[in-house]
Amino acid sequence: MTPLIGITAFPQHRESETYSALNENYTRSVRNAGGLPLLLPFDLTAAEAAQCIGQLDGLLLSGGADLAPQLFGEDPVRGVNNISQARDSGELALFAAAAKARLPVMGICRGCQVINVAMGGTLIQDIPSQVPGALGHSPQGLPMHEPYHRVDIVSGTSIMARAFGGDLAVTNSFHHQAIRDVAAGLAITARTRDDIIEAVEGTDPGWFVLAVQFHPEGQSQRQTEFLNLFRLFVDAARQYASRVSEIGEFQH
Ligand code: MN
Question: What is the pLDDT of residue 252?
Answer without folding.
Answer: 47
